Amino acid sequence: MNKDKLVDLSKKIKIENTIDKNLYDKFSIKRGLRNKNGTGVLVGVTKVGDVCGYKIENGEKIPSKGELFYRGYPLTKMVEDFNNTKRFGFEEIIYLLLFNKLANKNDLESFKKILVEERNLPNKFFEDTILNLPGNNIVNIMMRSVLALYSYDEMADDTDTLNVLSQSLSLISKMPIIAIYSYQVKIHNFDGKSLVIHNQDENKSIAENILSMLRIDQKYKKEEAEILDLLLIIHAEHGGGNNSAFATHVVSSSGTDTYSAIATGLGSLKGPRHGGANLKVSQMLENIRENLKNIEDEKEIEKYLKKILDKKAFDKKGLIYGLGHAVYTISDPRAVLLKEKARELSKIKNRQKDFEFIEKIEKIGGRLLMEKLKKPYPICANVDLYSGFCYEMLDIPKDLYIPIFAIARTVGWAAHRLEQIEDSKIIRPAYKSLSQTKKYLSMDERWFVPNLERWYSKRGGKMNILKNYFKFILKQDVDSKNSSKAFILVRILSFLIAGFFSWGLYYLLDRYNLNIFVKYLILIYASLAFFTTLPCKTIQMREDENKLSSWIPNFGFYNSLATLISPIYLFKYCKVLQKNKEN
Question: In 271-321, where does DSSP find H-type helix?
Answer without folding.
Answer: 277-290, 298-309
